[in-house]
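Q: What does the predicted 3D structure of TEX30 protein look like?
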Amino acid sequence: VKVKIPFGNKYLDAIFSVPEKKPTYGVILTHGAGGDMNFPHLVSLAAYLASHGVLCLRFTCKGLNVAYRAKAFKAVVEYLKLSDDYKLSGVFLAGRSMGSRAAASVIRQLSQGDDDDGFIQGLVCLSYPLHRPKLQSKLRDEDLLLIRCPVLFVSGSADEMCETQLLEGVVSKMEAPKKIHWIDKGNHGMAVKGRTADDVMEEVNAQVFSWLRENIQLQHK
């Protein structure tokens, strides 16, 4: 279902992937610095989640400024929260690369405000860009260290923007419940020599869904 989401004086293009049964939980998903919501990994994940009962709303927001992207993400969260069509108990924010930085920023902002009502249940970071290529001294970890909700990282073990030891170091300092799933030999685009893109996406999708399911079950205990 295609929708237009109001954002300032313009609209963001978005697509709902809706499960057959009425969903209780949703995932809001966005893309990296390049591309848009039709990036193959996002389309594949959205379809997988919807087929497993989780609503997925993916959106496009062009712009290379993380603060701007975070504002757009916030607008989408508000839109879904107030939606009459889908009454959700909670959502998980998810993004690829720069999109995951924007998602982390939104969660930090909302959790520090007074309006934290528990609607956001967790964060999924696909290929989180922890540092620029070859610039390991400047880590983009400030939002991650302030987040309290559960976080899943799915990254390639050969990602030139997320060195394994550096991410593990940041994760060890995080107070939030967290998990890393390494895609063996995957690069920043999650490409792995000798494996098809579909094969890698299946691994990513299954990991994301099983983590979501675990965390939703924890909410209900």
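A (community wiki): The structure tokens above were generated from the sequence. The mean pLDDT is 92. The radius of gyration is 16 Å.
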